[in-house]
Amino acid sequence: MKTYTNIVFDLDGTLTDPAVGIINSFIYAMEKCGITVPDRSEMLKLIGPSPVQSFQELYGLSHEEATTAVRYYREFYRTKGIFESGVFPGIEDLLKSLQEEGKTLMVATAKVEQFAETVLKHFGIAQYFTCIAGSNLANTITHKSEIIKAAMERCSITDLEHTVLVGDRMHDILGAKDAGIDSIGILYGYGTREELENAGADLIAESVLDLKRILSPQV
Length: 219
What we know:
Strand order of the largest sheet: 5-4-1-6-7-8
CATH class of the largest domain: Alpha Beta
Number of domains: 2
Radius of gyration: 17 Å
Strand content: 15-25%
Distance between the termini: 13 Å
Mean pLDDT: 94
Number of helices: 9
Largest sheet: 6 strands, parallel
Number of strands: 8
Shape: globular
Structural class: alpha/beta
C-alpha cells in the first residue's frame, strides 16, 4: 500500500459531525427566503457542498438569490450553528498519531475559512494542522479543487504522488482528482459507497480505525 506523507482532510462529515448546525442554518435561510423546508432527513445531502452551490443546484436559485440565501445561512451559523457539531470519535487520536509520525496535515473545506478555524480551535484540534484552507465570504472561492490546491500551495506541497485527500462526498473526490492527488472516501460521514466509488475514490475507509490502517500501514 502506498505511503502518504501529506494528508488533506475535508472538515464537515470527515473530521466533525456538523449535521445539526448545518441543517438548522439551512432551515433558517430557507424560511427567510420563502423556500419550502424539506424533512430534516432529506437535508443530509446538504452537508459537504458549499451552501451557494446547494441553493443553486438543489433549489433552483439564481446566483444573486443564492448569495442572499447564503447571507442568511451564515447569519445563523456564525452565532449558533457553528457550535452545533462535534468531532467524530477517534479522530483526535488519529490526528495526534499522524502528526507524531511526521506527516503534514492540512484541511480543505467548503466552509468559510474563518469559520473552519473557529470550529477546529473550539474542539481543540487546530493544533494538528499546518494549513487550513476554506472558501471566502465573498463566494469567489467555492470549488473544492481550488481550495485543495490552496492548502497544498500554502504548505509548499509539490510531491503529489504521496499526497492524499480524505473526504466523505463526491465533491471531495472530484476535487482531489482535479488537484492531481489520490483520494480516500470515508463511509462514517454523509456520502455513500456508491457515491464515492462513482466519483472515483482510490480507496474506501469504512471507519476511523480503517482510515488509520490506510494512513499508517506500518502501525
